[in-house]
# Entry
Amino acid sequence: MGRLLEQGKISSSQMGKMLFLVIVASTVISVPSLTGKYAQNDLWLSPILASLIGFLTVFIVFSLNRLYPQQTVIQYSPDIIGKVPGKIFGLLLLFFYLHITGLIVRNYAEFIMGNFLPQTPISIVIFTMIAVCAYGVKAGIETIGRTAQVFFFFFLFPLILMPFLLRDMHPDFVFPMFEHGLLPALKGAIIPQAYFSEMFLMSFLLPYVTDPEKGMRAGMLATLGVAVVLTGVNIFILLVFGRQSSDYLYPVMAAFRYISIADFIENLDSVVMTVWILGMYVKISVFYYATVLGTSQWLELSDYRPLVIPIGMLIAAISFWSMPNINAPGRFEIISFPFYSPLMQTICPLLLLGVAYLRKKGKRQSQAQTAAASGSVHSEKQEG
# Structure
């Protein structure tokens, strides 16, 4: 059993809210546009199809956790595939999370600068967010979990405002449905399914859950919640913009500019931005925490906190170097991320689970044969 570097504990409910915010924070702003390019009128179906990857990932993580309780993927990988291959896989996984965290921070900074702070240097936006997240990561998983529990309800607030768009909705925009069959909706699901694979972050959280037996239920509910929210958002965007949904880079922000409550409360896109920043704080903190914790476990350190600042600096460096221009994040999200993310967070863990089951089965058979052999020897001695 691996030694826990973190003394904090969270409930399965807090873990579920963390995972919910991790996925929704990135997807709710841009996914309606990305799915609309391929799915058109059927963009509402794409999140439902994409969520299947999320449910599969939760099942994989929980199954591995039952076989290796109180351990993260970095700790049990060497037990499953051998020390050297396990260490190599752990290193690749850590590089993946370091790289993705840098990209998330860069996307966050580009959005803030492009929509609200165009005169602010991007370095200020990046370093400010990393510094705030570093404080949360150093405080521990319990702090991040409680923060997610509070921010979860704030994140639902914009959804409550969506009915105020009713006067701008056009139900006929939904038709024709399935004009070209299921293929457009399947194409539209390719990008969001990569985000659903981020449920694999459960593997870093489950060892610190006080009620791990409810971990699978919490993960499944988080996946279902994300699917429901994205489906609802896509339907609202479709009813407001129709096939023009894909013409907007951030259609949710554009839609909320239409909301007017009693001709007094208007321009609610700033509310969406505020809530979105809270969600991005949780998302970056969870990725940051997984990277720091996993690195300390890979190096077999006694405490993860000394790595918080160095890894934060690496994340900042990657956020600058990985994107040469403002168009690079969009290209990566469309071309590379749909394959990169599921490969590391769903397919490789599925292979790990298969090998783990085979090893456990072989071990049980070996023990049974040994027990049968010892029993046979014992009976022969009695007969003699």
